C-alpha cells in the first residue's frame, strides 16, 4: 500500500520535473510578472497614497471637466470611427470575397499596404494634403474654381476621417475571413424565394458574419481610443485633447504618475466593457451557419457595377496609401517640401542625413527592426507553446496561461507603457532605457493577436502524429521541433509578420519607454514632427515603409498572400 | 528651419576641420587633464531643447571631432517634453542625462532648489560676452544659447503697410485665420513669450487672440512650418532662422515689436547624478566654446555668445532691442499659465 503510494508520488514528481512542465511553469511566472504585476501596480498607484487608501489620484484624474471631456471625445471618436470604417471595410471585404469585381487581389494588396502604413505617418502626409489653406487637395479644389475649403484636417472631423481610414484593415480582415467561409446555399434559398440580391446580402449574408463585423468594429474602436500619434499631430494644433494626449499631459511638470494610472483605469474599464458587450451579444445568438465550410461559393455578378465598385475601392486606397505615399516621397526627396515638384528641388540629402549624419536616426532604424523581430519571435513562440499546452491539456492551469495571454487586449498601448514604466523602470528591475523594456512591452502588446492565431493553427493539427513521436520515445520538445513547428510554419510566419509590422509602427507603447539609446523610428518621427522637419521625417517614413514592404513581400512568398487573414 | 540645414553640417565640419588643429595646440592644462579623465567616461547623454535636432547633431559631431573618444548621445525635444523626460528619469530613480539644456529657465531654478545640479564653472564661462555671463551666481547652470522672439510674417501675403508692428496688432481682425503660434506647455520659448505677454497685458490678451482663431502647434518652429506651407502667414519666431530665410531671399520679414521683444537666455547644467562627470564637464565647457557658437550662427543664424564669432546675421543682440523682461520668478508661474492656456485654446 505504502509502496504504491510512494510510487504514485514519484510518478507525480517525475511528471512535474518533465522539461516541458518546467517550461510551462517558467512561462506562467513570466506572464504573471509581465502582465499581472504592471496591472496590479497601476491599480495600487491609483488608490494608494503614502498614507494608505486615497482618492487623491482619482480626483486629479477625473475632478476636472476638461479631463472628462477628453475621455468623452475619445469615445465619440472611437464610435464614429468604428461606424465609418465598418461601413467602408465590410462592403470592400464583400466585394473582394463574394463578387466578380475586377482587381480583387489588388484591392487586398492595398488594404495590406494601409495596414503597413503607421497611422501617424498617414497623419503627417495628410497635414500636407488636407491643410485648410495650403493642403494639396484644397489647392486643387480652389484651382477648380471653388470658393470654400473642401476639408480641414485640423478638426474633429479630420481626426475621425484619418483614424477611420487607417482602421479599415481591421474591419476588412475580420469580415473577409468570415465571408470566405460562408457558403452560398442560404443565399440561394433566399433568391429562390424571390429576394433581390441586395435584400439577400443585407438579410442573409451580413447576419451570418455578424460576429466578424462586430469583432472588426470593436477592434477599430479600441484602436482609435488608444491611438496617440494622430491626435497629437492633428489634435493639438486644433486645440482638441483626447484621452491619450490627456494621459501624456499628466507627465508634464509636476508629473502625476498616480493620476495617469487612475486615468488609465477609465480606458481599461471602457475596453473591458466593450469586450464584455461583444461576448454577451454573441452568446445571445447562434451563428451556426458559419460552420458550413463544405458549401459551394459562387461570386455575385455585379454587372455594370463591376468597375464603379473597383473605382470606389481605389478611392479608399488612394486616400489611405497612394496620395500619402506620393506626398511622403515628394517631401523625402525635396530640399523644401513646400516648394513642390521641380528638378531643382530634388535632393538625396535627407537620406544622406539620416543614414550618415544623424546618430539617433540610424540607431532608431536598427532598434525598430531588431526590437520588433525579437518581440514578434518571442510572442509567437510563447503563444504557440501556450496554445499547444492548452489544446493538448498538458498541464492543469493552462486556462490561466491562456487568460494571461489574452488580458493585454484590454490594455491600451499607452496604458501598458504607463504601467510598464511604473513597474519596471524603478529598481529592482531598473529596465528604463534598456532594449529589454521595449521588447517586453512590444511582446506583451502583441501577445493576444499571436495567441488567437496560434490557437487557430494548433486546432487544425491532428494529434496522431504527435502521439506517434511520443510512443516512439520522443520528448515534448521533440514533438514541438519535429512535428508542430514544421506543420504550422505557414500560420506561424503569418502571425509573426502581423506582430512584427504592428510592432514597427508602435508609437503609444514606446513613448514612455524609450531612452536615448533605445529610440525607435516612431519616436524619432514624433520628435521630427515637433520641429516641423517634414523632409527628414518623410525620408525616415519612406525607409520604414520600404523595409516593412520587403519583409511583407518575403513573408508572402513564404506564408502565402493571404497571411493576414484570420482563418477560423 | 529645414532647407539650409542639409548642407550646413557639412560646411560646419569643414570649417571645424581647419580650426581643430589650432585649438588642439591651445588646449589649456586644465582642459587637457579634464579630457584625459573624460576619456575614461567615454560618453555622455545630452538632453537638449535649446537647439534643433540638426543643430544639436552638428554640435555633437564637432565635439567628437575635437575630443575623439567621447560620444554624445543626443536626446532632443521641446523644452517641456525634455523636462518631462528628465522628471520621468528622476521619478524612476534612474540616471540617464548628464548634461541638460533647456529654453525654460524655471527648470534650472527648480532643479537647483531640489539640489540636482552640480556646481561647476567651465573655463570658457569667462570668455563669453558679459551679458551672457553669470546666469547663476552659484555656477549650477550657464547660458549656452540665446534668442530673441520677434514677430514674423510672409511679405508675399501681407503688405508692409498691413504688417503688424506690435503684439497687440495681432489682435486685429485682419489677421483672423492667419496666425500661428507654438504651445507653452511644449516649448520653452513660447512659455517665456506667454509669460511676458500675460505680464504686460493680462490674460485678456490671449482671450482676444483666441478670437482670431490662431493655429497652435507645439514647438515655436511649428510656426515656420506653417508659414512655409502657406497654411498661415503671421506668427512669433526666434529671430535667427527667420532672418536667415529673409537673407536667402524668401518672402519673409521679421519685426522687432514696438511693445517689446522677448529675450531668451537658455541655459545648460550638469546633473549631480551624472556617472560621467568629467565628460559632462568637458562638454559643458565645449558648449561655451567658439565652435558651437559658430555652428549656431551658420545653421540657424543664432545669436553668438562668444565675441570671436562674427554676428554676420545682422541680427540684434539682447541689449539692442526693446524687451519685455521675464524673470526666473515669473517663469515659475508657467504650469499655472499652461492650465489657463488649455482652458482658452485647448490642445
Automatic annotation (TrEMBL), chain A:
Membrane topology: Multi-pass membrane protein
UniProt keyword Lipid metabolism, yes or no: no
InterPro entries: MetI-like (IPR000515), MetI-like_sf (IPR035906)
Coiled coil location: none
Residues annotated as transmembrane: 21-40, 75-94, 106-129, 153-174, 212-240, 260-277, 307-333, 369-388, 400-423, 429-452, 490-514, 534-555
CDD domains (alphabetical): TM_PBP2 (cd06261)
Superkingdom in the source lineage: Bacteria
Gene3D superfamilies the record matches: MetI-like
GO terms classed as biological process: transmembrane transport
Subcellular location: Cell inner membrane; Cell membrane
Keywords: Cell inner membrane, Cell membrane, Membrane, Transmembrane, Transmembrane helix, Transport
Entries under Pfam families matching the protein: BPD_transp_1
Example of a GO cellular component annotation carried by this entry: plasma membrane
ABC transmembrane type-1 domain boundaries: 71-278, 365-555
Family (UniProt): Belongs to the binding-protein-dependent transport system permease family.
Name of this chain's protein: Iron ABC transporter permease
Organism: Ferrovibrio terrae
